[in-house]
Amino acid sequence: MRSVTRRAPLEVVAVSRTETAAPHSRWRALAVLCAGQLMVILDGTVVNVALPAVQRDLGFSPSALAWVVNIYLVPFGGLLLLSGRLGDLVGRKRVFVAGLALFTAASLLCGLAQDPATLLASRFVQGVGGAVTSAGTLGMVVTLFPEARERAKAIGVYSFVQSAGGSLGLLAGGVLTQALSWHWIFVINVPIGAVAVLAAGRVLAPERGSGLGRGADAAGALLVTSALMLGVYTIVGTAAHGWASAHTLGLGAAALALLLGFVVRQARAAHPLLPLRVFRSRVVAGAMGIQALMVAGMFSFQFLCVLYVQKVLGYDEIRTGLGLSPVSVAIGALSLGLAPSLIARFGPRTVLLPGLALIAAGLAVLGRVPADGSYAADVLPALLPLGIGFGLAMPSLATLAMSGATPEDSGIASGMFNTMQQIGSAFGLAVLSTLATSHTEALTGDGAPPASALTSGYQLAFRVGAGLVTVALVLAATLLRNAAAPRAASREAESVSVPEVKAPRQPAR
């Protein structure tokens, strides 16, 4: 293998030997990583379809029911960054397996819950396990596949799991809830998680990490975790308290103060939790911001389109999942096939721009759905550009966001990428659902028919979502102008490939 220009620390290189492993071993490892990630992604949406059944069975009030989703998002979004850095320090395999085991155990507790308090507490633990599982997964994928073309294919598979998993969750949630009960949307994770934990122990290569002494920034960890959890809590609480309330403004200011304190700490710490060098690249920083905007806009589809199809068109849970499945099919076709080839040939920025344009167009089409509409004429024409666009954009953004990550920083870069996705999701859910609800209530108060008022609220949210993605498109066209061309990207991938270094003998497993 070629020598490197920029060497990773010896203790990371010596034990991260997945790069020189046989190709079939790398793809088996990718399958295990994606299986764990799919469980976490599915759980973010599988609950949405089952919420009415959960409310009827456990007696949740309408305001408390939203916390079945929100209490998962708060620890998930708050702990991704810390979990990603812990993976760099103590070994990403250890962190991944620990998170997967915790997520699986919490899923069992959720499935056995017989009262609201038990379900909410178990969902919080599920969010912790999901964050620990997800944080370093993309970093492990990048480390597994140092060659540019194979890396593009692997990121395509990972992106398919990330993006299509949400849509698949709607179908799985509908089938399990309607055919069995809502308890099974959680219990089904237990055998899958157990198999994934055992497979991860056998397939993933052991890593020692760089050691806690190289980044055990306890004060920074406390600041950033508090800031992110408080920030996500503030955003998801706007539906109940409003954006201009003292509750929202006060907690939002506190979250910003904690985040500012974290940035100051990282600039001065000898071993920072988040090395600020990660953001020196305008391409990397821009990709993460663009991703947050794209996900915020796209979340209006994942959440509000379900409501439109069920409440206005009258679909049940299974028909809703089947009706939205073309998005998953399109995402899979692009992420697993065409998108990696296009990225390798033309570069991620060139593929990203039309992807964002298609997403904005699909949301704009949904912004015109009528109260007396039909699935074939009004919904399906929007699903195809949404699926194709997301299938092109997600792997492109993942490639750009990880383009400047060295082996020792890949975990924190992966954690940041997932953190921006969760912040975008929480922001999109809070803003767009609040807009839809307030607009619907205003029209209902003026005497508008319920179906017309509901549809008008959804239309407004879809249009705002299209506007957010359009802003992301403009930023991509300007901030990412100097993104590496395919040949240059290939050279960069080679320059950070891990050299063949004699590793200390590991004890036989």
From TrEMBL:
Q: Fetch the Pfam families from UniProt.
A: MFS_1
> How is this protein positioned relative to the membrane?
Multi-pass membrane protein
| Keyword Transport annotated | yes
Against InterPro entries, the record matches this protein to: MFS, MFS_dom, MFS_trans_sf
Q: Specify the Major facilitator superfamily (MFS) profile domain's residue ranges.
A: 29-484
Ranges that cross the membrane: 30-52, 64-83, 95-114, 120-145, 157-176, 182-204, 216-236, 242-263, 283-309, 321-339, 351-370, 382-402, 423-440, 460-480
Localisation: Cell membrane
Q: Which UniProt keywords apply?
A: Antibiotic resistance, Cell membrane, Membrane, Transmembrane, Transmembrane helix, Transport
Supply the CDD domains for this chain.
MFS_MMR_MDR_like
Region described as Disordered: spans on this chain: 490-509
Origin superkingdom: Bacteria
Q: What's the protein called, per UniProt?
A: MFS transporter
